[in-house]
Amino acid sequence: MKLFVYHTPELTPTDRLPDCAVVIDVLRATTTIATALNAGAEAVQAFSDIDKLIAESEKLPPEKRIRAGERGGAKVDGCDLGNSPLDCTKDVVQGRRLFISTTNGTRALQRVENSPVVITAAQVNRQAAVQYLQQKQPETVWLVGSGWQGGYSLEDTACAGAIAKSILEEKGQSNPEAIGNDEVIAAIALYSQWENNLLEMFSQATHGQRLLSLNCEEDLKYCAQTDTLDILPIQTRPGFLVKN
Ligand code: MLT
């Protein structure tokens, strides 16, 4: 297995795809996706475009769907939810399909959606992603951060580092064969510096600051937890994720 880290969708190569892409948007899309599936959502369908989300969701009866839309951290008018994982409780999502569109996370998914395998990871389900990679041993793995509108986000790269660190430790660390680019080493260094204080890191990060200004402190606390959900979202067709 060779790992590559890309901080943003814009930095991922366009001339090839990995055997497995791991899409990461810790604040908050991939945390929300893991939480919704863990709470019993039938599936999550991701869209970069809100109008397409509305049109597609109309194909299901109202009791079978729930719409989550976020732009700039805030809820989109006309959607049932914004992008807070805390809203994805059992009574809200169980047995329903979550249709979701967010500023960056769903764009990152779209960027690698044609890879043979696409999974999503966040800090809350980090171990489930690690276990999957360890079991399946895909030859090339891209850990793709969502960032914020083309810029890099601390929390996504730190999560990529958390995944890479576990995998490399298991492989006996000094295994240059497994390191595909320098970003892997940088991501591990970033995670190692903050692993015992992720909430503090999230509070300093620009998107964390944005969410704090929108009174989303509880979201930050929730997203900063490690390995609390034993669930792995996996794509079965472009933009369509189910529990593995
Ligand atoms: C995104 O896709 O940019 C995020 O998930 C934004 C958010 O925190 O809702």
Comma- or semicolon-separated keywords:
alpha/beta; four-stranded parallel beta sheet; 20% strand; globular; binds D-malate
- Amino-to-carboxy terminus distance: 20 Å
Bound molecules: D-malate
Gross morphology: globular
Low-confidence stretches: none
What is the count of DSSP helices, taking H or I runs of 4+ residues? Answer: 10
What is the strand and helix layout of this fold?
Layout: E1 2-6, E2 20-24, H1 29-38, E3 43-46, H2 50-57, E4 65-71, E5 74-75, H3 90-93, E6 97-101, H4 105-111, E7 117-121, H5 126-136, E8 140-145, H6 154-170, H7 182-194, H8 198-204, H9 206-213, H10 217-223, E9 233-237, E10 240-243
Parallel strand pairs: 1-8, 2-7, 2-8, 3-6, 4-6
Antiparallel strand pairs: 3-10, 4-5, 9-10
Helix pairs in contact: 5-6, 6-7, 8-9
The structure holds D-malate.
Structural account:
There is one protein chain. With 244 residues, the protein is of the alpha/beta class. Helices cover 38% and strands 20% of the residues. Strands 5-4-6-3-10-9 form a 6-stranded mixed beta sheet. A 4-stranded parallel beta sheet has the order 1-8-2-7, sandwiched between helices. It binds D-malate (MLT).
Summarize this structure briefly.
This protein is an alpha/beta fold and 244 residues long.
